[in-house]
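pasting for ref. prot 1 ->
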Amino acid sequence: ELEGLQAAVGLNVVRGAAAAGQFAVGGNVAGGALSGGQFSVGANIAGAGGVGGQFTVGANIAGGALKGVQASVGANVAPSMVGLQAATGLNFAKEMRGAQLSLLNVGGDVSGAQVGLVNIASKVEGLQLGLLNVARESQGEALGLLSFIGNGQANVQLWASDVAYTNVALKFGSQHFHTLLTLGFNPGTNTHRRRYVAGFGFGTHIPTGRLFFDLEAIGSSVHTDNLFRDGDGLNVLAQLRLVAGWQVAKRFALIGGVTGNTLVTWDNGDRWEELGIGPEWRSVSDGGNTTVRVWPGVLLGVQL
């Protein structure tokens, strides 16, 4: 056992518990419980967990429950953690009470927050904030570009609108926040050209029994030749949607709503003059190269 200070250029090893501090360039190993701090460039290992902090450039590993802080550039690993795991690479804890901050966070039961590029957990009570969030069950919120939550939202929407008669969207996320991937198509008529609409958006979901409301912001591009290109011009269609839905059955709902549409075209892009069903306001700047059009719209469809 250690009570006091260990310092080395290479490796510090204590077979039993370590109370106080271990400082090394290479690594620190405590076979028993840690009560204090481990500081190294290489790796820190606390065989029986403990109370305190592990700080390194490489990896921190706790063999038992740890209460305190694990901070590293590489990775932090603990079977049970109360406190903070902060790393550039990976945080892993089968049971987490506190926060994980890293590019990749992996947890079993998490009570607190996961903040990183990719967050993965079995059960979450708290927040997941990242580019990709995955959880089998969440009693909190997942905010990110893509969130796949077992007890969250996972729906397909089909609707018609003034922008495109045929639209489909994938809607997925947590219980109150979701992401939308949308595609729209208009076959073309005597007065309207064929058009393709591809978009991406975010929304908030407000359930009130069988009735629910979604407030969503979507950005799309509108083209006539294909989904992603249309000559030399550029355009962006920004939509703010308020959608109401009635849950007819478990996997079937009727949806309808209103939209505020803003189409911005530049570099002499297509102005899509035929779009719009109501009053319109138009502003032209940059010598006619940029056009901004705003009009109201409606949508009606189903959610599966």
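and prot 2 ->
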Amino acid sequence: SGLTALAGGSLILLLIFTMFSSLLLGMGVPTTANYLITSTIMAPVVARALAIFLPDVYGALQAISPQLAILPAHLFTFYFGIIADITPPVALAAMAGAAIAKSNPLRTGVEASRLAIAAFLVPYIFVYSPQMLMLNAQWHEILLITVTALIGMFGIGMAVEKFWERKLNIVQQLMALGGGLLLIIPGLVTDAAGFALIAGVIIWQKIQIKRAPSEGSRLPANQ
């Protein structure tokens, strides 16, 4: 397909292009129609790519059931089709919230997307690690991927908000962001490194609060 050629043999680029395509296709579309559109147009592209680039993972799923092997691809495209409800320019859910709050719809959509930035990474996690969807996985694998994903999203959220118990400095932001991204990448080494970085930020902030306790409860300027 055109997306596959545009990605130039890179799975991550193909997934990013598919994400944006699904966001566009899902704008202003009801849920059922959203799934029908994204699963028909985009999911086959992702399913073929996963079978090619991750043969060990998806070959095992294919051997169990062809339906299991395509499930992550369908959920990936459908997920982003639904997230279109909070992403500008359409952002129906954000517009509804803006009407209630009497705020600017576009700014509300941008803020909603910023607050949900960690959620944009969830489909990438379960595409590379379908154990998150409880597919062909032992309970300890499911537990590990779930816990690391949650901590990773926590780290990314901390970096985006620039705040934990007090405002993060630039080094703490980079540590939290890097730790979150490392926890999302499959592998025990990356998980350990990511956890260490996020734990380092938390410990660093605890030390800062002990030295200057009056600053510990200050909220970010946009709160």
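The chain has two domains: 1-133, 138-223.
The longest helix spans residues 188-211.
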